[in-house]
Design brief:
18 helices; 461 residues; Growth Hormone, Chain: A
């Protein structure tokens, strides 16, 4: 019996060992299959990562488009005197075209953001630049005030309205997962960079060659940038097989959103029922009143009232654009690190102080106190944009760019009213002093509104 027992006990371990070996082989095969599937999933949608992420090229092209649109915004201020001399038009008639331009500039933005979701960013941006170019060419041949309103106010207003900070917010949301505040600040400053690049040249050209050659030159620049957009701009990172900058996962391109206008209005209807939107829109109305609304069309005439040459006034406005670009970059960097509401409070308070001091700073020459005003005012000029974009994103999620578009529309409504009413106040009172004081008071109100904005996701019904 002993030998039989030994033989049986020897067979049992051998059987268990064979089963264990089979189990390990099966598990290894499963692991290899899983790893291969992961590799295929990872490799399929993405291309090899280049040294310079494609998002930065996209941001550069978008910046070029915004720079070009920004160059058109300050031109009406340069045209007041030459149009008055050639056609005997008063300030109000020129300001009406500038006002219409600013209003359409703002109202177009939210619809443009939704239209980009429908037909693509490249088509909308390229078409907008072509429309701007057409408006500038037609302006060169105008002879009546209504033509200035139609060409510069409507055509250029609609085209440049597609190239606003709403466009910058959309590009940042699609292409960047990291550094959003910094990129938003850079693109927001691009509009004022257009002033820096073009305004002194335009002012000098107007004095030497008249107002028509500079306008036609801007039209040609817009055509050149439109060609660049069609060649280099893409709608989404997935179109070139890359992840958004800083993202860990590949994001597929969303399907086209039908009913762009309907969606824009639905987002507005929902936002109107929320408190943060009214606070943000109210602040941005006061922001528009106290920045581009008064500066783009009334700065040069206000400086001229004190004996300053147009070229000197244009150079100061251009210098404001330089510091605006720096301020927007700094604001974007700070928005990534601090509470956006506190940044808004500081910006509006500083702007109120500078505007209150401005009547005492104007003179026929460029003085040190005026340069100090240019520095401080410039730093806070566009610095309000990155915090507001971030607050819209936090409060409204994926609808944030459209909500910001509507807030920006409120900004431009304020700007349009300021452009027209500022010129009217000058005609009535014979001075801009009352305008600067009123604008200072408005900025103080905006500084008080900023802390009340809710910085968390809002439930929109």
């Amino acid at each position: 019996m002993a030998p039989a027992t030994t033989k049986q006990s020897t067979k049992q371990p051998t059987k268990r060992t064979t089963e264990q070996t089979k189990d390990r082989t099966t598990e290894q095969a499963k692991d290899r299959t899983t790893e291969q599937a992961k590799d295929r999933t990872t490799d399929q949608p993405t291309a090899p990562a280049p040294r310079l992420h494609r998002a930065w090229l996209t941001a550069a092209v978008a910046g070029a488009a915004i720079v070009t649109a920004g160059a058109f915004t300050t031109v009406p201020g340069l045209l007041v005197t030459p149009l008055g001399e050639e056609f005997a038009w008063n300030r109000g008639q020129v300001a009406l075209a500038a006002s219409g331009n600013m209003v359409l500039f703002g109202l177009t933005a939210p619809f443009a953001a939704a239209l980009m979701d429908r037909v693509g960013v490249r088509r909308v941006v390229g078409g907008a630049l072509l429309l701007v170019s057409a408006g500038a060419v037609l302006t060169a041949f105008m002879t009546r005030p209504w033509q200035l309103v139609a060409y510069w106010g409507v055509l250029i207003g609609l085209g440049s309205g597609c190239l606003t900070m709403t466009f910058a917010a959309g590009v940042t949301a699609r292409w960047f997962d990291r550094r959003r505040g910094l990129v938003t600040g850079a693109l927001s400053s691009s509009s004022h960079l257009g002033q820096l690049l073009f305004l002194p040249l335009l002012a000098g050209s107007v004095e030497r060659h008249g107002w028509r050659p500079p306008v036609v030159t801007l039209a040609l620049v817009a055509l050149a940038v439109a060609a660049l957009v069609f060649l280099a701009l893409r709608d989404h990172p997935a179109d070139v097989g890359v992840k958004p900058y800083g993202a860990r996962e590949f994001t597929p391109a969303p399907p086209p959103s039908p009913g762009a206008a309907t969606r824009t209005l639905k987002v507005l209807a929902g936002a109107l029922r929320t408190r943060p939107f009214w606070l943000l829109a109210g602040m941005f109305v006061l922001c528009g009143v106290s920045t581009n609304g008064i500066m783009w069309s009334n700065w040069a005439p206000a400086a001229h009232d004190h004996g300053m040459r147009v070229t000197a006034a244009a150079s100061l406005l251009s210098l404001i654009g330089v510091f605006s670009a720096l301020g927007a970059l700094l604001s974007g960097w700070l928005t990534d690190r601090f509470d956006p509401r506190r940044l808004l409070t500081v910006c509006f308070a500083l702007r109120a102080l500078t505007l209150l001091a401005l009547p005492a700073l104007f003179s026929s020459a460029v003085t040190a106190p005026m340069l100090l005003f240019v520095f401080v005012y410039g730093l806070v000029d566009v610095a309000t944009v990155p915090p507001v974009i971030e607050l819209c994103r936090r409060a409204y999620g994926t609808d944030g760019p459209i909500v910001f578009g509507w807030a920006n529309a409120a900004h431009q409504l304020g700007a349009g009213a300021s452009a027209f009413l500022g010129a009217t106040a000058r005609d009535v009172f014979g001075t801009y002093d009352v305008v600067w004081v009123a604008l200072s008071a408005g900025c103080l109100v905006a500084a008080l509104l900023a802390p009340a904005v809710r910085a968390t996701l809002v439930k929109v019904e």
